[in-house]
Fold:
Amino acid sequence: MICPLSPAHFFAFGAFLLFAVLLFLDANLAPLPLIVFVLTCFLAPLFPRLSFFLPIVSRGKKGEKGVALTFDDGPDPEVTPKLLEMLAQHGITATFFVPGERAERYPDLIRAILAGGHAIGNHSYSHSPFLMLKGSKVLRREVASAQTVFRRFGIVPLAFRPPVGVTNAQLGRVLLENGMFCLNFSLRAGDMGNRRVARLAQRLLAKVAPGDIVLLHDVTPRQVDVPYLLNEFSVLIEGIRQRGLEIVPLARLIGKEVMQLRQAGPSAVELSGRSQVACCSKWLPAGPGQPCPAHQPKDSNVDITRQMAPPPSPASVTAAEVKTLVVIPVYNHAKTLHWVAERALQEG
Structure:
């Protein structure tokens, strides 16, 4: 897959070009451009809004007057249900960036978030703060594993927020392969995952501006109780409105969807985890060595209709599914017709 060029590519080209020129002018200065480039590669990921290695959405589109609220690292059984009630009372929706592991642990809270009209983004699977140091294979697994979890809830997140907002040179390709984009934030209170909640609303209101994507956390605070945290959230919402700003959905603020609804049908990842057969134009799960339910003996008590899952939507069919549903059955059917024709010629 060919990735679009990033500022890092042009920076690297310029650094090597300058290095080559300086070799002829002053060899002692020649390494400086390369040293600056290497240092920039180390420091750039620490700035969540800097699109150095890949495009990063961190603010609303130009001219947008609203503000979007985002919550990371949840859901949390102590905070999220009460937060959802508070958001409903204020009549606003937010976006929750959820680690896949948390989604598996608290499926009812994920359903409650979706039922409230909120969006969900991918926040990796394990939420390791050192994820960007672990290599592209681990990064791919973290993103894909979380996506697999979310598909079970009927959604496909399009926005990915890296843990602690740190990126790396491989993230752009991984997100491109998954049809996703990187989304960070433009305003945060430095709450350190709700470890520093005191005067949270005051710190944010002093800096909030039109187009801001606000980073918050829906996890249990360390030094204060949950009612204090929720009160800070409420004061923040009221303060934003008093400044003449509207709290809008994130998708509206940035002008692109952050989550899609997924229609029924197994994904390529799900295919790799269980045996499947394509039979009678239906999608039928079958364990190893088990016959197709549609071809059980006539005296079998198997309820075929219960075992048949609906066929996947054409919009969600992957290449692996096309192979299983279409290519293999057609190939087998063609082989059967060829064998019948040969027998007919031999006997004729």
Observations:
- Residues 319-347 form the longest helix (29 residues).
- The CA atoms of residues 202 and 253 lie 23 Å apart.
- The longest strand covers residues 68-72.
